[in-house]
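Thread amino acids onto this structure.
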């Protein structure tokens, strides 16, 4: 018999599902409590407000990204690592997609979360730049230091604004689809197209083929 999930963990899990499906702004603590079949007082025993739940979810997202967005120990990078990083980014963005959708509102509403996010962003950019440099050292990418910095920044801008782009240009009003997020990861890979070493082009093109999703043919979203 599977162990019973603690109420606190249930609150976190179901809040994530509701935030993703409906958008954080549309979900209140009363909605969460009713969805779980518990009293608002029981919810407040574990979390003082909705911001505390969001902070918990952001900490999970931050830890997940920190875990994979780093260089491997004791070896150089390979083409297989490129697939790993891109798929890991997609999985993290998909699981915590409400963070990307409502990011500006969330940061404006919580100064502590905004400070934590800025620290996370600085760390992620440093780690991402080190990874791109690792691909250069492995002979997979060819670029100088200025191009490497620009690529890192452009990749970050795409990843952090892709969901907002979908909402504003494709009228996504309900939940997102994983296919639309996958196209955002493809856009990051497309940034590298002019920097791929000749011997790696065929392998990178195969990765791109798996990620590419035609926006015009993506399933309609929302209601």
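Threaded sequence (223 positions):
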């Amino acid at each position: 018999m599977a162990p019973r999930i603690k109420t606190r963990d249930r609150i976190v899990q179901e809040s994530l599902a509701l935030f993703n499906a409906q958008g954080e702004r549309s979900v209140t603590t009363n909605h969460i409590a009713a969805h779980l079949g518990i009293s608002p007082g029981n919810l407040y025993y574990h979390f003082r407000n909705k911001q505390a739940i969001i902070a918990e979810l952001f900490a999970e997202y931050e830890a997940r990204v920190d875990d994979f967005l780093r260089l491997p120990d004791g070896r150089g990078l390979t083409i297989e690592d490129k697939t790993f990083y891109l798929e890991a980014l997609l999985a993290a963005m998909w699981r915590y997609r409400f963070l990307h959708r409502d990011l500006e509102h969330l940061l404006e509403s919580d100064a502590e979360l905004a400070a934590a996010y800025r620290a996370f962003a600085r760390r992620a950019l440093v780690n991402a730049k080190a990874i791109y440099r690792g691909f250069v050292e492995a002979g997979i990418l060819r670029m100088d230091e200025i191009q490497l910095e620009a690529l890192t920044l452009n990749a970050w801008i795409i990843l952090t604004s892709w969901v907002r782009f979908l909402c504003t240009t494709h009228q996504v009003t309900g939940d997102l689809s994983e296919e639309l997020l996958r196209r955002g990861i493809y856009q990051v890979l497309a940034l590298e197209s002019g920097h791929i070493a000749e011997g790696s082009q065929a392998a990178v093109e195969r990765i791109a083929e798996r990620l590419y999703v035609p926006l015009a043919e993506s399933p309609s979203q929302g209601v």
